[in-house]
Amino acid sequence: MRIGIDIDGVVSDSYPFWLQELNRHYGKNIPVVDDYDMHVAFGVSSEDMNNFFDNNVERLLMMPEPIPGAKEGIEALLRDGHEIIYVTARTPEQKDLTLQWFLLKEIHHEHVLCTGFGSKAEVVKEWGIEAFIEDYQVNAKLIAECGVPVFLLDASYNQEELPQGIIRCHNWKDIITGIRGIESKKRKTPLEEGEILR
């Protein structure tokens, strides 16, 4: 299958590091991100927070470690014969830093698409992506509405009830199990599915 994978919160463990840096910058002690729009948690404008990110972009993108199990999970998907397409809301200007991070962490990357504020669902349709791994519930919902199964990596900021087509995963092992489950269903013949051939 052709599998789409988000980066921040899915491959890069960005949010704990970003939270640490934002607490230092704003003089706060917020223990956990419970809103994907972090400026809300910090009580500042999105413009103010965007300025902070712009001024510290290299550190904020290069310093996080990979999510536990992500590198091994991606390698497992590649061994299973899948194609990986990274689809991130990072901007095209941040692509070089993103590629540097992948090289630094020795994580396979061939296609890295930086959508900025564009629609991930449109990219999914354009690239013929058949399954998607995401952490942001809004994106997950829009992608699932395209008929593409979404594996939502559990996070403090995505605890809302899930609509059909989105599967909550607590770690990368859950993701691999879920994708292999879809794959095995695709391979089964009607007879194996219990249908009677007439």
What does this structure look like?
- The protein has 198 residues and is α/β, with parallel strands linked by helices.
- Helices cover 43% and strands 13% of the residues.
- It contains 9 helices and 6 strands, in the order E-H-H-H-H-H-E-H-E-H-E-H-E-E-H.
- It has helices at 14-26, 38-42, 46-55, 57-62, 70-79, 95-104, 120-127, 137-144, 172-187; strands at 2-5, 83-88, 111-114, 131-134, 150-153, 166-169.
- The chain has a 6-stranded parallel sheet with strand order 3-2-1-4-5-6, sandwiched between helices.
- Helix 5 runs parallel beside helix 9.
- The longest helix has 16 residues, at 172-187.
- The two termini are 31 Å apart.
- The model is unreliable at 189-198 (pLDDT under 50).
Describe the SSE topology.
Layout: E1 2-5, H1 14-26, H2 38-42, H3 46-55, H4 57-62, H5 70-79, E2 83-88, H6 95-104, E3 111-114, H7 120-127, E4 131-134, H8 137-144, E5 150-153, E6 166-169, H9 172-187
Parallel strand pairs: 1-2, 1-4, 2-3, 4-5, 5-6
Helix pairs in contact: 5-9
Q: What integer value in Å does the Rg equal?
A: 18 Å
Calculate the terminal CA-CA distance, rounded to whole Å.
31 Å
Strand content: 5-15%
SS-based class: alpha/beta
Number of strands: 6
| Contiguous runs where pLDDT drops below 50 for at least 5 residues | 189-198
User: DSSP helix count?
Assistant: 9
**Sequence of strands across the biggest β-sheet:** 3-2-1-4-5-6
Q: How would you sum up the major sheet?
A: 6 strands, parallel
> Which outline best applies?
globular
What do the pLDDT scores average to? 92
Helix percent reads 40-55%
